[in-house]
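Sample intake sheet
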Amino acid sequence: MKPTEDFSRARRILTEILSFRPDVPPVPVTFEGAGDLPSAFAVSDFAATAVAAAGIGVADVLTAFGGCVPALRVDRCLASRWFASSIAPRGWPLPPVWDAIAGDYAAADGWIKLHTNAPHHRAAALKVLDCAAEREAVAAAVARREAVALEEAIVAAGGCAAAMRTTADWLASDMGRAIAAEPLIDWRDEGAAAGLDRAVDPARPLAGVRVLDVTRVLAGPVATRFLAGLGADVLRIDPPHLEEPSVLPETLLGKRSARLDLRTAEGRHRFEALLSGCDLLVHGYRPGALEGLGFGAVARRALNPGLIDVSLDAYGWTGPWRGRRGFDSLVQMSTGLAEAGMRHFSAMRPVALPVQALDHATGYLMAFAALSALAARRRSGRALSARLSLARTAHLLLGHPMVEDGAGFAEPTADDWQAEIEATGWGPAARLKMPLAIKGVAFAYPHPARPLGGDGAAW
């Protein structure tokens, strides 16, 4: 194991993250665990520092409520593994992550990634390509088109795609310059709010905190999973027919889940009651989507003046792509991460990050923002909101390339897994130990991961 002072790269990334919240009290952080995921970028340090930031948010809450500053310890190896998957089924298979035609395709002048996991995104891509729903037919149709033009056509049709760009092309574009100018966490002071005066159990610092979760794959659910582990009552709300089978065993740990149709009077009424009774709202709707449902920022604040609001989108909040649909894999293509991987490994096709690092890192940064806002409301009686984006997280990672490849990680051992077997809604499973240890804090999850919609829409 390396001594703590050797982890200078991780400390540089963490310092950059914390520069966007300079009033957070200093917290001692120890990194441990040598090795790196194979990548053109410092993904393992990136994972460890995102987890450390969330831990610093916990420390901020504890000190705001009169506790002592706890020491933190982050295991880089476990953090990297949690960024891949924290769960190992026992006797049942995880659903496939990708739709059969999702993936990278060679276009006439480059590469494009199609993201077709959602049925309506798949239908939009096939309509633009005018081909059958078979991978060979899709590949032939893509090969006749230019990547950027095809990307724009699919996006305009309501689908999800991204042409591969170089880092230089991204940074020089209007969108890249807009993202570079945005803060990693865009804080807003929403006005005075009643100070939080509840007692805090140092072992379960979020016990009694109500979190309304209206996020989807993957960053938002990672954030609320972390909050649930600290004792928060996390209630996830989904529309009646939405499913996310590939990620639910991973991300529904510790949460309750209900279904509501916000286009009906009954659904809207129940959502208003939930919103007015929660401490924290975490959402990943594209800009303007909640406004279209009648739950814009002004309406939310009227229902709950003290609401802490943490939101996410794919491509930021100011540039020409604000509001564009996007996922981790698409943002990797757009920002040059996949092209940099292709060059780094001398590959013949795009090389994605070894894990969905943008999603997971942004999730832990959202958790940090939520916790920091809870601490700020306690100290100052002000309600804060925070906005983050996958593209801005990618911009942070772009600044930390791998100078030389490090050693990989060994395979997980029995000591890396929690002793208890989790009775998920799909079958028994092992769960990795937490990559974060905070002195005096007990991470525990009151509910195993279960299918969507099994609980009532009430606190």
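Comment: Confidence is low (pLDDT under 50) at residues 1-5. The chain has 17 helices and 16 strands.
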